[in-house]
């Protein structure tokens, strides 16, 4: 391996780690109600850092009357922005490397798509603040963050393949699965279906969070002591045409709308769990135990975190772990799909 191969690979590794941190910081900012800790963008009350001196506090009060400085929330927001800026620099480097490579095997377009996505994410970050946590934008910002992390991870896998580094997992997958009686086409199709359902579920989770519907069902497995609450209003809860203008900190939906969102998120969790369990069983039968165990463990962890959040009334550390678990489950599914498609090349 030459430096020309290793440096982009290591840069991509760093980008994946940093993207994971950015996603976690974004979740913490949202869960700690710090999304408007800085009422402007990209600065904070017009400064590059959170105002702290007396003079800066006076200027902040003049620029944004009626919006007092809350240092803890401001720093939560700004640290998230600093980390996102660093991630943007790394992705710009990866895109520049892609443009400079003449090797047709190099995933050039992949790195350019990442560059476009990080620019779009920056815009969503701005709109999250300027539109005062409008749920549609907050949900898209969350989805964009997870998508960016997933595409970075996929780029890492492709760069690893380009360097001809065959991991133990890929070597272990190659022969047993191809020799089994499980159709590779069926496995791929089911993995795609599970991934699609998971994307919808992540979007529902973002919608639940952005509309402050997590506490709408304080019990489990029922919701307000009912399996299917008669008072919930699905039309109100899933209305994506909410007006732009009011401050959405704390949410604007009524109780029945929030209950509907929470219940639908639970239904989505059941569907995703069913799809992933079937995939795990088929992978196990195909004698790919490492993949099956890893994917199954990620699913069990995520379900347990979701249930624990309800029982302990959504403490921030558990809610943050639940967000992180969703991203890990997504990356695991993408890994499964990648190796299922790599089989024909191994």
UniProtKB/TrEMBL annotation:
User: Which parts form a coiled-coil structure per UniProt?
Assistant: none
| Spans traversing the lipid bilayer | 12-31, 82-100, 112-131, 137-157, 190-208, 263-284, 291-314, 320-341
Which keywords annotate this record?
A: Cell membrane, Disulfide bond, Heme biosynthesis, Iron, Membrane, Metal-binding, Oxidoreductase, Transmembrane, Transmembrane helix
- Pathway involvement of the protein, from the record: Porphyrin-containing compound metabolism
Q: Which domain of life is it from?
A: Bacteria
Q: Is RNA-binding there in the keyword field?
A: no
Name a biological process GO annotation. Answer: heme A biosynthetic process
Q: What is this protein called?
A: Cytochrome B
Organism in which the protein naturally occurs: Proteobacteria bacterium 228
């Amino acid at each position: 391996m030459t430096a020309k191969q290793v440096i982009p690979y290591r840069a991509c590794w760093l980008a994946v780690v940093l993207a994971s941190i950015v996603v976690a910081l974004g979740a913490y900012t949202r869960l700690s109600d710090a999304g408007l800790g800085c009422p402007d963008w990209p600065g904070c009350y017009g400064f590059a850092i959170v105002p702290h001196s007396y003079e800066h506090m006076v200027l902040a009060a003049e620029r944004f009357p009626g919006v007092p400085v809350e240092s803890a929330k401001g720093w939560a927001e700004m640290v998230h922005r600093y980390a996102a800026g660093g991630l943007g620099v790394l992705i710009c480097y990866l895109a520049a490397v892609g443009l400079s490579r003449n090797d047709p095997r190099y995933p050039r377009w992949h790195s350019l798509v990442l560059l476009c996505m990080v620019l779009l994410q920056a815009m969503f970050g701005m709109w999250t603040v300027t539109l005062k946590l409008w749920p549609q934008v907050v949900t898209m910002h969350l989805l964009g963050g997870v998508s960016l992390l997933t595409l970075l991870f996929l780029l890492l896998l492709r760069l690893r393949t380009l360097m001809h580094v065959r991991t133990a997992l890929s070597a272990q997958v190659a022969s047993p699965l191809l020799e089994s009686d499980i159709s590779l086409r069926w496995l791929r199709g089911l993995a795609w279906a599970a991934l699609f359902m998971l994307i919808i579920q992540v979007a529902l989770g973002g919608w639940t969070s952005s509309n402050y519907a997590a506490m709408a069902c304080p019990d489990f497995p029922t919701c307000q002591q009912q399996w299917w609450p008669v008072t919930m209003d699905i039309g109100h809860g899933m209305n994506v045409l909410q007006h732009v203008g009011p401050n959405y900190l704390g949410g604007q939906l009524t109780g029945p709308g929030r209950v509907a969102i929470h219940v639908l998120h639970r239904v989505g969790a059941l569907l995703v769990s069913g799809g992933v369990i079937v995939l795990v069983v088929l992978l196990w039968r195909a004698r790919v135990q490492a993949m099956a165990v890893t994917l199954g463990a990620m699913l069990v962890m995520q379900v347990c975190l979701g249930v624990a959040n309800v029982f302990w009334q959504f403490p921030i550390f558990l809610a943050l772990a639940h967000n992180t678990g969703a991203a890990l489950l997504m990356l695991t599914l993408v890994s499964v799909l990648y190796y299922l498609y790599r089989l024909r090349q191994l």
